[in-house]
């Protein structure tokens, strides 16, 4: 502690430029380090959730493909499915268990984690165990979910528990990702900090150089040198201070000239009096002596007046400088104190695992206002990625699963809102809740996305406003209806009849490929097992109706 005191004493005695540079540099480094650490932690948690979800999906898929093996009691019927599972590099071990938890088949050279008795009431895959090196997932295998197997007994009831699949998935991919995230985030934070520090150095140099020149000019003026003028350079506040100093020096010089003129006049008057006293009688010598003493006193008073005026002007100058400096220095002190408190509070909340996203966003927003260079949208992509991770997974695969239509379309339309943000057009959703589907959410999202973007690109050309409305509702127990309607200028009969033709576009040469609506028709009538129709007239907008079965046809491309 005794060794650190001279350092802080040196900082307190340093000039304003060095103090400002050190204080703000320390704050910038702390903010960048905290931001990089929190961003890395959030990204690691999201990656872990994604890998766990991948393991659950893989275990569920393997369970569906193992029904025949458990129905027939022949473990060899599951060899192909297990081989496909081992095509994923992270899969370390696969076990096939009967309904009582007895091991029928095991593949993989890595020892299994500490196994527990599978949950008989489980209806979907779940995470059984987790260690520092791997996860263990359990997926129940039940009968049903398609056409009846010819090997199943006649008394077999749909949904009967046939056995379990235990799958071990390694964490090597997650550990590699952790290292990369830490390197990237802290590297980016360091680069940002260096950029901010460079900007701070330039700003402090621009601020302190005019202040130093003004202080040197004031010191020369205090020593009595006249004819000095400060340079009107630097920020506006400092330039105003220099202008006020120049005006003050002009007033002082004018008053000094007036005093010199009065002294000359008094001296001339004294000389005249001496000549008149010499011409008069000796009786006036006493009065002349008194007058001389008065003149001496007057001269001394004049000198004191000059000095007092100089001191008063210097005092006003110092007060003005202090007043002008008080506002920026006070603001800088308040901002730095607030940032320091925010950093300490974030550190305490992080250590106690009580940090909330709202508090982090508020602290980052205040930091951005304090330094004017901190980017305000850091966490929003993470929120979007976290909020729509299932949507991102669906959009990159053709996997079939059960899903809520309202949720899938809602997340899709939310991600498309930025395309409308800088346009005079609006995207409106009217989605009925509670529609469960067993289909392909990825291709369905591609269909709706193509229809919406087609409406945005072609439906409002030359319009100053417009809306695209996406609706969905249940037709009956087996079908749903999806509608995309816009109030644009519509299309002619010729265009409407050719809209699903491949390579047909009204914007060739302007970015249109002519394949968007053809893909819509192919996916709807093929993989999704539905139908699509177009209703449109010139000047009355366009309405596209998509009718889909709640359960997609079994025959389709394998993802």
Widest sheet: strand ordering? 2-1-5-4-3
Q: How many strands in all? A: 12
Low-confidence stretches: 146-156, 301-325, 372-388
Overall 3D form:
elongated
Percent helix, as a range, is: 55-70%
Determine Rg (CA atoms, Å): 42 Å
- Strand fraction equals 5-15%
SSE series: HHHHEEEEEHHHHHHEHEEHEEHHEE
Helix-strand category:
alpha+beta
- What is the straight-line distance between the termini? 65 Å
Helix run count: 14
Overall mean pLDDT score?
75
What summary fits the major beta sheet? 5 strands, antiparallel
Describe the structure.
- With 559 residues, the protein is α+β, with helices and mostly antiparallel strands.
- It has helices spanning 4-13, 16-65, 67-72, 79-85, 172-222, 236-279, 285-351, 357-371, 380-387, 389-395, 405-421, 441-458, 493-498, 516-525; strands at residues 91-98, 103-107, 126-130, 134-142, 161-170, 401-404, 425-431, 436-439, 466-474, 479-486, 531-536, 542-549.
- Helix 2 runs parallel beside helix 7 and helix 11 (405-421) packs parallel to helix 12.
- The relative contact order is 0.07.
Task: Sum up the structure in keywords.
single chain, 559 residues, alpha+beta, five-stranded antiparallel β-sheet, five-stranded mixed β-sheet, 14 helices, 12 strands, 57% helix, 15% strand
């Amino acid at each position: 502690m005794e060794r650190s005191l001279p350092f802080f004493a040196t900082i307190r005695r340093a000039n304003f430029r060095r103090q400002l540079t050190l204080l703000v540099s320390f704050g910038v480094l702390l903010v960048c380090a905290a931001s990089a650490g929190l961003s890395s932690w959030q990204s690691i948690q999201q990656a872990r959730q994604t890998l766990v979800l991948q393991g659950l999906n893989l275990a569920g898929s393997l369970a569906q493909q193992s029904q025949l093996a458990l129905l027939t009691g022949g473990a060899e019927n599951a060899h192909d499915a297990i081989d496909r599972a081992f095509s994923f590099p992270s899969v370390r071990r696969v076990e096939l268990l009967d309904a009582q938890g007895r091991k029928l088949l095991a593949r993989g050279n890595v020892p299994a984690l500490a196994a527990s008795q599978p949950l008989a009431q489980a209806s979907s895959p779940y995470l059984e165990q987790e260690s520092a090196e791997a996860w263990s997932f359990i997926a129940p295998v039940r009968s049903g979910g398609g056409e009846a197997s010819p090997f199943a007994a006649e008394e077999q009831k749909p949904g009967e528990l046939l056995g379990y699949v235990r799958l071990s998935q390694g964490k090597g991919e997650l550990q590699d990702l952790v290292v990369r995230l830490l390197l990237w985030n802290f590297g980016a934070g360091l680069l940002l900090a260096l950029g901010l520090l460079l900007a701070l150095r330039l700003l402090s140099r621009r601020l302190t150089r005019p202040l130093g020149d003004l202080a040197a000019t004031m010191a020369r003026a205090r020593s009595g040198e006249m004819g000095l003028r400060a340079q009107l350079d630097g920020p506006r506040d400092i330039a105003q201070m220099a202008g006020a100093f120049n005006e003050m020096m002009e007033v002082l010089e004018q008053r000094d000239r007036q005093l010199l003129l009065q002294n000359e006049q008094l001296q001339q008057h004294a000389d005249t009096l001496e000549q008149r006293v010499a011409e008069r009688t000796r009786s006036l010598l006493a009065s002349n002596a008194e007058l001389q003493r008065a003149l001496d006193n007057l001269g001394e008073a004049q000198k004191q007046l000059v000095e007092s005026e100089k001191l008063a002007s210097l005092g006003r100058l110092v007060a003005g400088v202090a007043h002008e400096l008080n506002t920026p220095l006070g603001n800088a002190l308040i901002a730095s104190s607030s940032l320091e408190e925010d950093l300490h509070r974030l550190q305490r909340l992080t250590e106690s695992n009580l940090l909330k996203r709202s508090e982090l966003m508020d602290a980052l927003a205040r930091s951005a206002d304090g330094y004017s260079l901190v980017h305000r949208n850091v966490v929003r992509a993470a929120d979007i990625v976290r909020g729509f991770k299932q949507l991102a997974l669906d959009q990159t695969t053709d996997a079939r699963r059960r899903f809520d239509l309202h949720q899938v379309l809602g997340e899709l339309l939310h991600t498309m809102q930025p395309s409308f943000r800088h346009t005079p057009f609006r995207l409106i959703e009217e989605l009925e809740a509670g529609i469960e589907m067993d289909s392909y959410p990825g291709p369905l999202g591609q269909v709706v996305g193509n229809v919406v973007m087609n409406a945005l690109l072609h439906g409002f050309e030359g319009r100053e406003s417009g809306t695209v409305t996406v609706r969905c509702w249940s037709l009956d127990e087996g079908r749903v209806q999806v509608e995309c309607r816009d109030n644009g200028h519509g299309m002619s009969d010729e265009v409407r009849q050719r809209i699903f033709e491949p390579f047909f576009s009204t914007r060739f040469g302007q970015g249109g490929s002519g394949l968007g609506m053809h893909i819509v028709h192919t996916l709807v009538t093929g993989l999704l097992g539905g139908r699509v129709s177009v209703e449109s007239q010139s000047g009355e907008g366009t309405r596209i109706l998509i009718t889909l079965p709640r359960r997609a046809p079994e025959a389709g491309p394998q993802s």
